[in-house]
């Protein structure tokens, strides 16, 4: 995870909202991007957009995991289904990790692949 320098105007409320953006994605990021007093805060907006990108990536991974899970379950008559159900918790791990990082460090950081893609598309601007 590469880091972008922290902004001097980040306060505790910004850090809390950024953490909630990852923890309660996609609800809180949408709220941040709609509420006028929140969307003007660069730290909150950056992490809200980045959280939405992570949510979309996790959704894609979840769909792919469902396909693999059902194929493995079908091929093994349900035996692998008993063991592989834990793979559905994998997409939640990055959200918990980035929640902690956003709140404790108060820095702008990049999520590998996702942030770079969002910057290239013009959806996210580096802080």
Task: Provide a quick synopsis of the model.
The chain has 127 residues and is mainly alpha-helical.
β-strand number: 2
Task: Provide the succession of SSEs.
Answer: EHHHHHHEH
If you average the pLDDT, what whole number results?
Answer: 88
Radius of gyration: 17 Å
How many strands, what sense, and barrel or not for the largest sheet?
A: 2 strands, antiparallel
Give the CA-CA distance, first to last residue: 16 Å
Poorly predicted segments: none
Percent helix, as a range, is 55-70%
Shape: elongated
Structural class: mainly alpha
SS field, number of helical segments: 7
Tell me about this structure.
It is a single chain. The chain is mostly helical and 127 residues long. It is 68% helix and 3% strand. The protein has 7 helices and 2 strands, in the order βααααααβα. A two-stranded antiparallel ribbon has the order 1-2. The longest helix has 34 residues, at 42-75. The radius of gyration is 17 Å and the shape is elongated. It starts with a strand and ends in a 6-residue tail after the last helix.
SSE arrangement:
Blueprint: E1 3-4, H1 12-23, H2 27-34, H3 36-39, H4 42-75, H5 79-84, H6 92-105, E2 108-109, H7 114-121
Antiparallel strand pairs: 1-2
Helix pairs in contact: 1-2, 1-4, 1-6, 2-4, 4-6
Please give a handful of descriptors for the protein shown:
mainly alpha; two-stranded antiparallel sheet; 7 helices; 2 strands; 127 residues
């Amino acid at each position: 995870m590469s880091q972008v320098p922290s902004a001097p105007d980040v306060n505790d409320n910004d850090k809390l909202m950024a953490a909630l953006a990852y923890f309660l994605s996609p609800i809180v990021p949408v709220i941040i991007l709609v509420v006028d007093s929140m969307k003007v805060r660069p730290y909150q907006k950056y992490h809200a957009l980045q959280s939405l990108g992570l949510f979309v990536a996790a959704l894609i991974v979840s769909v792919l995991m469902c396909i693999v899970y059902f194929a493995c379950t079908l091929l093994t008559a349900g035996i692998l289904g008993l063991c592989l159900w834990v793979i559905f918790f994998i997409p939640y791990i990055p959200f918990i990790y980035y929640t902690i990082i956003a709140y404790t460090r108060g820095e702008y950081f990049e999520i590998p692949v996702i942030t770079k893609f969002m910057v290239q598309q013009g959806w996210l601007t580096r802080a």
